[in-house]
Amino acid sequence: MGKLSGKTALVTGGGRGIGRGISERLGRDGALVAVHYGNDEAAAKETVRTIEAEGGRAFAFRTELGVPGDAEALWAAFDEQIARYDERGGLDILVNNAGVLASGAIDQIDEAAYDRVFAINTKAPFFIIKHGLTRLRDNGRIINVSSGVTKVAIPDVIAYSATKGALDTLTFTLAQGLGARGITVNAVAPGTIETDANPWVKDPEGRKQIAAVSVFNRVGRPADIGDAVAFLASDDARWITAEVIDVSGGSALGI
Ligand SMILES: NC(=O)c1ccc[n+]([C@@H]2O[C@H](COP(=O)([O-])OP(=O)(O)OC[C@H]3O[C@@H](n4cnc5c(N)ncnc54)[C@H](OP(=O)(O)O)[C@@H]3O)[C@@H](O)[C@H]2O)c1
User: Fold this and answer.
1) 188 in helix, strand or coil?
2) pLDDT at 255 over 80
3) Cα distance between residue 33 and residue 44, in whole Å
4) Distance from the CA of 211 to the center of ligand 1, in angstroms?
5) Tell me: the pLDDT tens digits for 11-32?
6) Taking CA 135 as the corner, what is the angle to CA 133 and CA 136, rounded to the nearest 5 degrees?
7) Does 81 sit in the ligand 1 pocket, CB within 6 Å?
């Protein structure tokens, strides 16, 4: 029996990168994992296969985020799939992980780029939570994937950083409202993690530079985030809410 046996988790963007690290760990802990994806069906199916190969249960489902009606479409697709696995429907753990980077300083970001990054990173989680509250059981968990860039100023990713700052405020404010139902709302804030979003970590020089930002002198891995999310999802974290947990390997601590 894993710590999450009998629980259902939904991980947005759960098929690859950090989302895969989260999906796999929650699956290993015994949760039935709903692996949401936007485009990359092969990656999502591969994640499901890995979870099943380790004795877990998972399914993949697709919806595009960042478009009108995205949250309702996500829940409609989830409801249809979950009915095949659990007659209760609903879920216990919602992880808002899907996100995109928008590079560019304030003089380079145009309105379309700004709207898109906010639509995917901030508006989608807001409405996924809004429409998910009737499905999320009491004593459930909401975990949002934020970023260390809300604490370390990087002008070249200013719009992206602002999307994550808004997510932190959403986390904090929701926690106040949902406490009466025993639901905790937290965020994790990774530093640079080795995923498709950071292709420069494949370059030896870029990798060395990024590693040096952490006190542990290595680049973060999806499993580093998955393990922290699994803790927040577990009963061990029942007394923790409204927190943004830094999971950056002590990035940018010194000057
Ligand atoms: N990597 C880092 O260094 C880092 C650091 C701090 C925070 N984060 C945050 O961590 C989260 C995951 O990042 P990552 O590095 O793992 O990114 P990634 O490898 O690029 O994966 C992004 C995930 O989000 C999904 N997604 C993106 N846009 C979508 C859309 N419009 N509709 C539906 N799904 C969409 C993708 O689905 P498909 O697989 O179907 O394409 C994919 O699963 C993001 O919120 C990111 O901001 C990342």
Assistant:
1) strand
2) no
3) 11
4) 21
5) 999 999 999 999 999 999 999 9
6) 65
7) no
Name the residue of 20, 33, 39 whose CB sits within 8 Å of the most ligand 1 atoms, as the mutation to test its pocket.
39
1 — pLDDT class (breaks 50, 70, 90): confident
The label of the residue with tokens 């700004």 reads 114
Q: How far is the CA of 242 from the centre of ligand 1 (A)?
A: 23
| b/e per residue 98-119 (b: at least 16 CB within 10 A) | bbbebebeeeebeeeebeebbb
Q: Is 102 left (phi over 0), alpha (psi -120 to 50) or beta?
A: beta
Per-residue pLDDT at 191: 98
* 160 is annotated as an active-site residue: yes
pLDDT at 246: 98
With a 6 Å cutoff on the Cβ, whether 13 touches ligand 1 is yes
Distance 144 CA to ligand 1 centre (A): 12
To 10 degrees, the CA torsion angle through 164, 169, 172, 176? -140
User: In angstroms, what is the span from residue 145 Cα to ligand 1's centroid?
Assistant: 10
Confidence of residue 65 (pLDDT cuts 50, 70, 90): very high
Please work out whether the CB of residue 35 comes within 6 Å of at least one atom of ligand 1. Answer: no
Indicate the DSSP class of residue 251: B
Q: Is 226 in the pocket of ligand 1 (CB under 6 A)?
A: no
Question: Position 42: which residue type?
Answer: A
